[in-house]
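Troubleshooting log. The previous structure file for this entry was overwritten by mistake, so regenerating from the original sequence record. Sequence copied from the archived sheet and checked twice against the printout by T.R.
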Amino acid sequence: MLIKRPTRRQILSNLPTLLLALGFLTYCLGISALGLRRHAALQTHAYDLGIFDQLVWSAAHGHGLYSSILGWHFFGEHVSPILYLLAPLYWIFDDVRSLLVFQTLALASGAIPLWWLAKKHLQNPWLALLCALAYLAYHPLVYVNLYDFHEIALATPLLLFTFWYLDENRYWPFALCLLLAVLCKEEISEIVFILGLYCLIKRRQKLLGAGLMLAGLAIFALDIWVIIPHFRGSDFAFVSRYAYLGDSVPAIIKTLMTRPGYVLEHLCTKTKLEYVLAVFGPVGFLSFLSPSHLLLALPTLAQNLLSDYQPQISINFQYTAPLTPFVFIAAVMGFKNLQGYLSTNWPVGRSRTLAMWIATALIVLLGLRYLADHPTLTYAKYLNPSKDAERIIANLERIPAQASIAAQDSLVPYLSHRRQIYLFSKKHQAEYIVLDSSLAKDKQSDAQYLNSVQDALRQGYAIIYQDRSLLILRKQVQGSTELPAEFMEHLNL
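Regenerated output below.
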């Protein structure tokens, strides 16, 4: 039987799909490798990889979601039941690195529904490929991916799948993906509400729209005023990031409605303008050409821009994760609107060609600008972890697996597979303390750090092991209480 060779037309028609698969694979392998090397270089942190590692490990072993680092059940911090669904990951790969790889695979999967959406609405597989690759190269996405692990990162692909299934009128998978997104974090309830408003106004689906709006409000109220206070023993703590607006959610809403000039004054700052440029610049600002779809980005965008907490107005952290899907959805629909506008003034063939070249030029030129400081270049310095990092990590095996430990920030993610792990700089009653003076000092000055170490030695801890700048202390045992010279030489006093 003769096998026909594919024609040139068939090869070209399949080429965008093959290139997307190549881009997906490159992202997964490259970003996973970079994230793992960053971890190997002791550049991951207690906040938040250590916290999430302990939570998933604890859930996998039937201990619930209590965080010894925070000092309460995680639902007192954020309502993130999705963490229970991650527990099976540790039944198979009981290693913190599996969280980092899983996060990469999850974020990369968002390119798939975006590709489907762009192919459907732009009617051009090459433009769809451009959108999907722009997503995989998107600065905020890569920063979220490489900055430890966060449950909110999982909302990015889930929201993209949610919108795709809504656009296809496939309501059961739509409901499932939206439910999973809601399980990621309490702030997704705001997106549920705005998605309902979108269905009501744009899609003319009164029942679905009203249902989603009511569900969003109910979930928000339940999370903020019932679940979090119950587990924390106090009100929702993150209101403090909006202190200039009020000391409670109702007070903040009142200020937003009655003092628009005051609010605008806090919004119009150089830092916040740069944030908006960094979010929308890589897609050529095409998102602004579809206001109805950009509306879906409003909850997260407003939440970040209204905050006075600096990480929220930076693309370097996890706070853009729920925003990213709607930046790209609006960009796709904005480009579709651009095509429609041009087709009213130009012949159909020419208008599509012109629109394609305009969009491509915008994304490529702005992409070249942003590639100059791409996150992968920032993190490339971690590709070759030092021998010191390898030595320090190897020495951590000396501590019993079940022992309670207090450790410096970057050591915590290596020790968090246990029920009692603490930051050294915070109050604790740990049996062991692990320190290395060559590493970051948990936001303490060297003098404060030294004082904390000396306090521990005065309170009954003794040095039971030393390797250069690394010390392992244990409570109520015989050992040295003199700090060695190799430990002291890394302190600037």
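Residues 8-40 form the longest helix (33 residues). Archived copy saved in two places this time.
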